[in-house]
Design brief:
Blueprint lengths: L5 H13 L2 E2 H7 L7 H13 L3 E6 L2 E6 L3 H16 L4 H11 L4 H16 L2
Antiparallel strand pairs: 1-3, 2-3
Helix pairs in contact: 1-3, 2-3
Length: 122
Amino acid sequence: MNKLTRKEEELMKILWEMKEAFVKDMVEFYPDPKPHYNTISSLVRLLEEKGFVGHKAYGNTHQYFPIVDMKEYRKSFIKNVVKDYFDNSYKQTVSLFIEEQNLSKEDLDELMELIQSKKENL
């Protein structure tokens, strides 16, 4: 799966939330200062070329919708982060979060339960 730029990801998050939208609706969804209509139009067309977005045509107007599921993209993104920054080690990745994040006892207990249930299913 192609990597997205920060701006492309930002727009995809909007489309995932909206489910489908015209460019003018996407522009309105942004906080102020809102991006220019042409900027969003160009970005959404790039996302379409990359296979992330599809559209329905209504005359000269297009209504866009996500083709790639957010969960699918998130999974691919995390795999790339683990590969690129943690030598493909999920253990190193989780260790960083445990060391760097202020995880509560409840969070750690939940993680331990997830790990235990995964071990039981192997």
